[in-house]
Design brief:
Layout lengths: L7 H16 L4 E4 L10 E9 L3 E7 L1 H12 L6 H20 L6 E3 L3 E4 L9 E11 L2 E10 L6
Antiparallel strand pairs: 1-6, 2-3, 2-4, 2-5, 3-7, 6-7
């Protein structure tokens, strides 16, 4: 892993800092080897392109996403649009921090948010790092997926 642009420990630090700064909570962030499964009710992702290709992805339940939105937007109750906007913005912030570790130039795409249970895949990628983030009674998974160049035979 020494030649990886972003170590799992780097991702742990990014997540801890973002949750602390933007959500006012100190989360428990642990490396996670288990795939998140197909039970996520919200998936938010930001693509990275340029000298490095890949995705930064958050998956979790709607309750966790609503808690994120309420804290980020300082609202006592949130609407579905608030949840989508906050999840996308949070992943944009995380991806921006991840980008600082990547080869330059790398650029971020606009966040994409899918609400509903769906098995969302990113063909042509491999898992670089995955962490499980827990705070209060909530948890989400954050992954960094690296693009794999196509094989040339």
């Amino acid at each position: 892993m020494a030649d990886e642009p972003l170590t799992p420990q780097d991702l742990e630090g990014i997540i801890w800092q973002v949750w602390t700064a933007y959500l006012g909570t100190s989360p428990t962030v642990v490396l996670d080897e288990e795939p998140p499964g197909a039970d996520a009710e919200i998936t938010a992702s930001v693509g990275v392109a340029g000298a490095w290709l890949g995705m930064v992805v958050l998956r979790g339940g709607l309750g966790a996403a609503a808690a994120l939105a309420a804290e980020m937007l300082e609202l006592s109750s949130v609407k579905p649009d608030d949840i989508q906007d906050a999840a996308g913005e949070l992943m944009n912030i995380v991806a921006g921090n991840v980008k600082s570790f990547l080869p330059k130039p790398s650029h971020l795409a606009l966040p994409q948010v899918v609400v509903g249970r769906a098995e969302i895949l990113w063909p042509g990628t491999r898992l670089l790092s995955r962490v499980r983030v827990r705070w209060d009674d909530y948890q989400v998974t954050v992954e960094v997926l690296e693009g794999v160049p196509p094989r040339r035979d």
